[in-house]
Write a structure and sequence with these properties.
Layout: H1 2-24, H2 26-51, H3 56-114, H4 121-149, H5 152-168, H6 170-179, H7 183-224, H8 230-239, H9 246-263, H10 266-291, H11 300-314, H12 316-337
Helix pairs in contact: 2-3, 2-5, 3-4, 3-5, 7-8, 7-10, 7-12, 9-10, 11-12
């Protein structure tokens, strides 16, 4: 009993040490995490080639070549336009805030004349530049940190090599990890492995497809509407849709502000509302049920809390993996303590 307890304490201690190390080494671990994700996503294709009598090393090379060729092709087609739109958005954002500020001043002056007794012009004049400065600096930090993480060396050299080794030795790596544990822990691993694999599969593959389809839908809708920054706003809206309520609300508000300041016509706000309503309908009734399902089973409040916690600890990587990690932790807790 004491021996088992000591092993359990040591295991928890080791997991805690690894967790703390991962916080400090997150920048170094990024290419390995990307390589691991790529290998996990592409492993079924390599398994299929292996069943067709193609050696795993050759199959891994073929699948990775096709994957990175398509990825780089899409990247070099979209990225230059996206960078131009983002830079233009950041450059014009203070002007956008000034225009919005003037509209709010006009509106509050009208309210002041009709209903209110206290002036609010000074409040808005102070509020506008502060919001402008905050959002501009936040977006600039996100872009600069993303550029630092996904630099040319990491993207073009380190990540493909790591992905190839992970993919080629995927089954060997899994067996090696299992061999490190005693028979007692192997039973636990088998007990959770299927459920954990379902969570990761539904989130990584499902959310990637859902985000891509939504990004394409919003981009085409905004492009047809002839809205400025249509690619930037479309990608932002599509891929941040995994954040319940908050992601969609922020995207909707930004799009409404941009569309109104561009056209100065309230009818365009109605068009934006129709676009977002249809997007939410497609996501809730067709995309998410069929591509992700209810395998995660998280309450929206838990999702928001996990995103804030992991985002503060690990940055953008933490935001991406907050939902599946939280789902796995809750799964283990339910199976052991309920």
């Amino acid at each position: 009993m004491d021996k088992f307890l000591n092993k359990k304490i040591f295991t928890y201690f080791l997991v805690g040490i690894l967790f703390l190390l991962s916080i400090y080494l997150i920048d170094i671990l990024v290419p390995f995490l990307i390589g691991l994700i790529v290998a996990y996503l592409l492993d079924p294709f390599v398994d299929w080639l292996e069943r067709k009598k193609i050696k795993r090393a050759l199959g891994s090379s073929i699948v990775l070549f096709i994957f990175f060729f398509l990825t780089l092709t899409i990247f070099f087609l979209i990225f230059p336009i996206l960078i131009i739109q983002v830079k233009s958005f950041l450059a014009e954002f203070p002007l956008i805030i000034d225009n919005l500020n003037s509209k709010l001043v006009t509106f509050t002056d009208y309210l002041h004349q009709k209903f209110l007794l206290m002036p609010s012009k000074d409040l808005i004049n102070n509020f506008g530049p502060s919001i402008s400065k905050f959002i501009t600096s936040t977006l600039s930090n996100i872009i600069s940190s993303s550029t630092a993480i996904f630099n040319i060396i990491t993207l073009l050299i380190v990540t493909p090599i790591v992905s190839w080794y992970f993919l080629k030795d995927w089954n060997k790596i899994l067996k090696s990890i299992q061999s490190m544990f005693s028979s007692e822990y192997k039973i636990l691993i088998k007990k959770y492995s299927k459920d954990i694999n379902n969570i990761l599969d539904s989130y990584l593959r499902g959310q990637l497809i859902v985000g891509s389809l939504l990004s394409l839908y919003y981009f085409l809708s905004f492009y047809i509407l002839d809205l400025n920054y249509s690619l930037f706003i479309g990608l932002f809206t599509g891929f941040f849709s995994f954040i319940p309520f908050l992601g969609m609300i922020i995207s909707f508000i930004i799009t409404c502000i941009l569309s109104y300041l561009q056209y100065l016509d309230f009818y365009y706000l109605l068009y934006v509302l129709i676009i977002f309503s249809l997007g939410q309908f497609l996501e809730s009734n067709f995309l998410t049920p069929n591509l992700i399902g209810k395998k995660l089973g998280l309450h929206p409040l838990i999702v928001l809390l996990s995103i804030f916690i992991f985002g503060s600890l690990f940055g953008i990587i933490g935001i991406i993996f907050a939902i599946p990690i939280t789902s796995i932790v809750l799964l283990i807790f339910k199976k052991n303590y309920t």
